[in-house]
Amino acid sequence: QVQLVESGGGLVQPGGSLRLSCAASGFTFRTYTMSWYRQAPGKERELVARISSAGAITNYLDSVKGQFTISRDNAKNTVYLQMNSLKPEDTAVYYCNVIILSTFYWGQGTQVTVSS
């Protein structure tokens, strides 16, 4: 079955960096677009970044352009989210996502807290 396991979250001071990882299994990873979403308390889940199957095309939420970078390693079945210059408003649970045959699959999420 499809499994997505996120890691790398934590508490970081404003201006700091984190790299999130999502290890995928149960499907042919290299053939699917992968995405990162986030959900802050009291807010809807929003798409943060997306990367095409071969990694050639990436898309970002406007507010994180130039700040976050999504990448993938198809040999390791892993997608990453490098987050720099973190701000308190980046605080959220971050989720890895893949859509297979119109079904959304999610990981358990990893908490990112940006606070001094």
What is the fold's blueprint, element by element?
Layout: E1 3-7, E2 10-12, E3 18-25, E4 34-39, E5 46-51, E6 58-60, E7 68-73, E8 78-83, E9 92-100, E10 103-106, E11 110-114
Parallel strand pairs: 2-11
Antiparallel strand pairs: 1-3, 3-8, 4-5, 4-9, 5-6, 7-8, 9-10, 9-11
Describe the structure.
By secondary structure, this protein is mostly beta strands. It is built from no helices and 11 strands. It has strands at residues 3-7, 10-12, 18-25, 34-39, 46-51, 58-60, 68-73, 78-83, 92-100, 103-106, 110-114. Strands 2, 4, 5, 6, 9, 10 and 11 form a 7-stranded mixed β-sheet that branches. It has a 4-stranded antiparallel β-sheet with strand order 1-3-8-7, with no helix packed on it. A hairpin with a 6-residue loop joins strand 4 (34-39) and strand 5. It is globular, with a radius of gyration of 13 Å. 28% of the residues are buried.
